[in-house]
Amino acid sequence: MVDTTSMKAEGFVQEAKGRVKDAVGAISGDAAMQAGGKIDQLGGRAKHEFADLYDAHESRLEAVTAFIQERPLVSLGIVALVGLVIGRLFFRKRG
After folding, report:
1. Cβ-based neighbour number of residue 60 at 10 Å
2. What span, in angstroms and rounded, lies between the C-alpha atoms of 39 and 52?
3. How many percent of the chain have pLDDT more than 90?
4. Beta strands per DSSP E along the chain
Protein backbone atom coordinates (compact mmCIF):
# COMPACT_ATOMS: atom_id res chain seq x y z
CA MET A 1 0.00 0.00 0.00
CA VAL A 2 1.26 3.50 0.81
CA ASP A 3 4.52 4.09 2.67
CA THR A 4 3.32 6.84 4.98
CA THR A 5 6.65 7.31 6.73
CA SER A 6 8.45 8.30 3.54
CA MET A 7 5.47 10.41 2.49
CA LYS A 8 5.60 12.29 5.81
CA ALA A 9 9.36 12.80 5.41
CA GLU A 10 8.91 14.10 1.86
CA GLY A 11 6.21 16.44 3.13
CA PHE A 12 8.44 17.83 5.87
CA VAL A 13 11.35 18.32 3.44
CA GLN A 14 9.13 20.03 0.86
CA GLU A 15 7.59 22.27 3.53
CA ALA A 16 11.04 23.22 4.87
CA LYS A 17 12.26 23.96 1.35
CA GLY A 18 9.21 26.15 0.85
CA ARG A 19 9.88 28.06 4.05
CA VAL A 20 13.44 28.79 2.91
CA LYS A 21 12.28 29.92 -0.55
CA ASP A 22 9.57 32.07 1.05
CA ALA A 23 12.06 33.74 3.39
CA VAL A 24 14.68 34.30 0.66
CA GLY A 25 12.00 35.70 -1.64
CA ALA A 26 10.79 38.05 1.10
CA ILE A 27 14.30 39.28 1.86
CA SER A 28 15.30 39.74 -1.79
CA GLY A 29 11.94 41.15 -2.84
CA ASP A 30 11.39 38.35 -5.38
CA ALA A 31 7.61 37.83 -5.34
CA ALA A 32 7.76 34.82 -7.69
CA MET A 33 10.21 33.00 -5.42
CA GLN A 34 8.14 33.87 -2.38
CA ALA A 35 4.97 32.55 -4.06
CA GLY A 36 6.79 29.38 -5.09
CA GLY A 37 7.88 28.94 -1.50
CA LYS A 38 4.32 29.26 -0.26
CA ILE A 39 3.17 26.69 -2.84
CA ASP A 40 5.92 24.29 -1.74
CA GLN A 41 4.86 24.78 1.89
CA LEU A 42 1.25 23.97 1.07
CA GLY A 43 2.25 20.94 -0.99
CA GLY A 44 4.45 19.61 1.78
CA ARG A 45 1.76 20.18 4.38
CA ALA A 46 -0.77 18.42 2.15
CA LYS A 47 1.50 15.37 1.80
CA HIS A 48 1.99 15.21 5.55
CA GLU A 49 -1.72 15.60 6.29
CA PHE A 50 -2.63 12.94 3.72
CA ALA A 51 -0.19 10.53 5.34
CA ASP A 52 -1.71 11.22 8.77
CA LEU A 53 -5.22 10.77 7.38
CA TYR A 54 -4.24 7.56 5.64
CA ASP A 55 -2.69 6.19 8.85
CA ALA A 56 -5.80 7.01 10.84
CA HIS A 57 -8.20 5.37 8.38
CA GLU A 58 -6.06 2.64 6.85
CA SER A 59 -8.00 -0.23 8.43
CA ARG A 60 -11.30 1.23 7.20
CA LEU A 61 -9.87 1.71 3.74
CA GLU A 62 -8.63 -1.88 3.67
CA ALA A 63 -12.07 -3.12 4.80
CA VAL A 64 -13.82 -1.14 2.07
CA THR A 65 -11.34 -2.38 -0.53
CA ALA A 66 -11.88 -5.97 0.57
CA PHE A 67 -15.67 -5.51 0.42
CA ILE A 68 -15.47 -4.12 -3.12
CA GLN A 69 -13.19 -6.94 -4.26
CA GLU A 70 -15.38 -9.63 -2.69
CA ARG A 71 -18.74 -8.16 -3.80
CA PRO A 72 -18.26 -6.05 -6.93
CA LEU A 73 -21.91 -6.18 -8.06
CA VAL A 74 -23.24 -5.14 -4.66
CA SER A 75 -20.69 -2.31 -4.60
CA LEU A 76 -21.76 -1.19 -8.05
CA GLY A 77 -25.40 -1.23 -6.94
CA ILE A 78 -24.62 0.89 -3.89
CA VAL A 79 -22.74 3.43 -6.00
CA ALA A 80 -25.58 3.55 -8.54
CA LEU A 81 -28.16 4.10 -5.81
CA VAL A 82 -26.11 6.88 -4.21
CA GLY A 83 -25.68 8.50 -7.63
CA LEU A 84 -29.40 8.32 -8.27
CA VAL A 85 -30.23 9.91 -4.91
CA ILE A 86 -27.69 12.70 -5.42
CA GLY A 87 -28.99 13.27 -8.94
CA ARG A 88 -32.56 13.56 -7.69
CA LEU A 89 -31.59 15.94 -4.90
CA PHE A 90 -29.53 18.34 -6.97
CA PHE A 91 -31.01 18.08 -10.43
CA ARG A 92 -34.75 18.18 -9.93
CA LYS A 93 -36.81 18.85 -12.99
CA ARG A 94 -38.25 22.34 -12.78
CA GLY A 95 -41.36 23.09 -14.62
Report:
1. 9
2. 20
3. 51
4. none
